[in-house]
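Here is one chain, start to finish.
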Amino acid sequence: MDFDQLHTFLEIVRLKSFSKAAQTCYRTQPAISAQIRQLEQELKTELFERFGSRISLTTAGRVFAGYAEQVLDLRRRAQDEINELELVPRGELVIAANEATCIYVLPQVFSEYKKQFPGVQLQVDRSYGSRVVEAVMENIADFGLTQLPVQEKRVQVVNIYKDEIKVIAPARHSLVEKSVVTCHDLLPFPLLLPTSGTTRARLNTWLEPVEDGIHVSMELDSTEMMKRFTMAGLGLSFLAASNCREEIASGKLRALTLAPEPMVRRLGLIYKKDKALSKAALGFIQVILENFGEQSTNEITKLPRVVAL
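Its structure:
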């Protein structure tokens, strides 16, 4: 049973004629008759009583006609609602990100996105490190915001912006007179390191020449905790400069560049390569790019097809 058979059946009911229904359905009368036979075989009952050239509905036919009208009406309503999504996108988007991204990136992006797509509900899946990628791959989240590079080959990556991991020190710390610091400069001081993740792995490499002499005071999984503990004098921390703007501007913290080379951090938006993006999803990517405008035109042209979902 399909929509076309239902349409043919209702045309026969409306016109009270197989031959007239064949004309409006642009089919031959034998083709119309075959469709009705298929319906009757599936339903295991006759739908029409035939009196020569005249026809009328059986009792089962009258019952079936009511349901056929409801089915085709639901189909029309579903199609209308889907078409409307192109004009007024609705639904839900889930974004996976770590704590710092939730605090320092998403509020600005969400605010702008809601202005453009007020009918779309935004949800946050707070994740850490590789869990962001897993959330995207497991379809728990539509998008992930994570530090690059990402090893998973089945995700599409959109570069968003880059900043720098710096040594964060209290404003009056003895190191703040330096413009840059080496790993050897940190030997006398306690350190606050991230528990895990890409930044921790890079710091381990940077600290490797002095790994036997450093004093790791604490390992923390929260950007806010690191800042608070650093201001309290519990140790030097390593954070993205963009996550400390307010404290640096107010004179509570100082940020020092790592030597011999700055430690650049790249943030990317990821989603599954085989994901067909709705207008609402594509709009989220575009808002991200507009808010962090270091992208080339090529990044936008890489985006997949849009579907009305």
